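Ligand-bound model needed. zinc ion.
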Amino acid sequence: MRSTRTLFTSLLPAAVVLISMQIVTAQRLAPARNFVRGASVAPAAEVGGIKEVIAEKYARRYEEWKAEFLSTDIGKAQWDMYAHHPRLQLTITIGGKSMQGAGTGKYKWNDAGELVSATIMLGERIDEGYPSAVYYPVMNALEPFESRQLIGGSVLAATKIAHEFGHVMKISTTSRTLYNLQVQLFPIYNKIFLSNGYNVNDPRLVDIAQKMGGNPVQIWEDREYWGEANAMLFLRDRIAREKFHCRLFGKIKRAVEEYAKDYEARFAEIAKEQGAIYTCGWR
Ligand SMILES: [Zn+2]
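Prediction:
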């Protein structure tokens, strides 16, 4: 098993690129030639609700994925919370370059520092494709179960939706000042990092990381693991009655232990609530 530090170092260059891409993706999110669905549409800014902007050609698959997400108590509770949110307008749309991935961005805060706008961009084929176990221990764990036809693509898609909802929930508790500081300092950090021989101990980088609350990889992986924790909450409900639920939890557990040791408590807490700590040997 690789140590966490070695893992950070070996993954740094790739993750830096990913972070830059994520910021660019967030800036590029733009609805175009779509129609607006649903009764929970918020017509003006600073009026909360969920705005679904789904092109006709994606409508059918979107409804399937959404139905799968809403089939669980946790999915329904989270959806209802945002559908009736007093301030936050959450836009959900399908498109973007990453067909099997998804992203959340276009965050806006009001003068009181409260999040009022966020957009989830789903890829058009999120019912396919499993991201790496290193940063996505939960989504990745589904792979063998789909290949054995124990779950369908809609479960994978709904798990990806849950992951994005996890991002929205986490950003709601992040201060605008800190987020803006991170957006501002990421490129500066990356520029130095790419020019100093990938030396994270460079005093300039240590200083920037201190201001941002971690280096870009730590901040990025922390966000991704919050997404994964919410994905696990969804699966906890969705898979609870399936015979293979302990096998699935076991696979998540092994990936978390190997790649996300520092974040283990976050996942163990969910396993504990589910009772997996007793029934599946999660300790
Ligand atoms: Zn994510």
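The pocket of zinc ion is lined by residues 163, 167, 224, 227 (CB under 6 Å).
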